[in-house]
Fold this protein.
Amino acid sequence: MDKIRITGGQRLDGAIPISGAKNAALPLMIASLLTDETLTLANVPRLSDVSALSRILSNHGVDRSIAGKRIGQSAETGQTIALTARQIVDTCAPYELVSTMRASFWVIAPILARMGEAKVSLPGGCAIGTRPVDLLLMALERLGAEIEIENGYAIARAPRGLKGAEIVFPKVTVGGTHTALMAAVLAQGTTVIENAAREPEVTDLAACLTKMGAKIEGAGTSRIVVTGVARLGGAHHAVLPDRIETGTYAMAVAMTGGDVLLEGARADLLQSALDVLVKAGVEVSSTKEGIRVRRNGQPLEAVDVETDPFPGFPTDLQAQFMALMTKARGTSRIRETIFENRFMHVQELARLGAKIRLEGDCAHVEGVAKLTGAPVMATDLRASVSLVIAGLAAEGETTINRVYHLDRGFEALEAKLTRCGALVERLSG
Ligand code: UD1
């Protein structure tokens, strides 16, 4: 297994191109199942999660072609993928495939909407806590589907098609909102989704579905109204920039000091996280080219943070922010409200010298003067990258094991950091 070795202590200076958002690309790819025409997606990041989902989709009969590289494109520029589900050849998503990636469970909605039945393996456990799918299934039931759970599979049937209805989510769920949207676009009549997730990835999916011919109002607010249509067609859509990658590199620059332009990044996608960085003493400015992040000698101040659904502080930046706070002046309290077990990075950050005390859903991070390098490993994607951020500022060498987590979600991580002066190398294992 590959490892990443970081020699800490270098400032970051230069520019980092921001990739297309993984968490938008995955539901957009799944939306290709809704039509027999071609859905062309541009700015799709080169990530192992994207390849894994491609394999899952091809099992259902989706043809994929990837546009060749054009002049000026590099491994850091997103790819253009054309997906065509002329026929759905298999309505079953088996355990072997779904267990590798949670988001693939969402195929249940478009397959059910188009074929009247779908059988999808329930996703397995996940390192960041229990991640149930009861609300996703509730949404499908509201639209008239009959659901059975049998031998580890969710079997959904709607032989006479789905019917528009009111879906009220008792808590904000991104996966639930994606599922409800993809099912409702082909249902007969009107669906109202209350307490919908307002995440930019939901808005991006709705924008793409609209280009495909869907009738959707209110995406980006907590009340989405969908008027079902009989069929959807092909479309061309560019994936929005990755707000989590943006925030991650912003925190890396905040950690090491330096001056970096995050090219193509959009401040409106992560304003709450940028506001927190400003409070911590980091200079952040939005330009036509992207977001510029600077810290030149000013100390880092401790800031308290609580994760929340969008537009709040994202759970996907909690680990990275905790890494940053390990070197702040004072004690920062970080509360995780979305996932109950998303503190796996704490023990590993402690190996680098961080002082963190856990109390229920809250981490108290007492800033220390210095971190020192060590071998570490992490059990999920965002936790892994928090160790990269800490390693960039630690004295000496930090080796991060289980790099496959990083490859799931960060396109060309070493190349992007290296071009800004970091000493990062991949050791093949
Ligand atoms: C969540 C995050 C998303 C992040 C992603 C990957 C939120 C609101 N969602 O999305 O920003 O990118 O993880 O880390 O921040 N839940 C249920 N039953 C369900 C579905 C969800 O109880 O059927 C609960 C979850 O356990 C969790 C909360 O609802 O506590 C939000 O989950 P959800 O938004 O669905 O998770 P993801 O779609 O994975």
In short: The pocket of uridine-diphosphate-N-acetylglucosamine is lined by residues 23, 131-136, 171-176, 197, 199, 309, 314-316, 338-339 (CB under 6 Å).
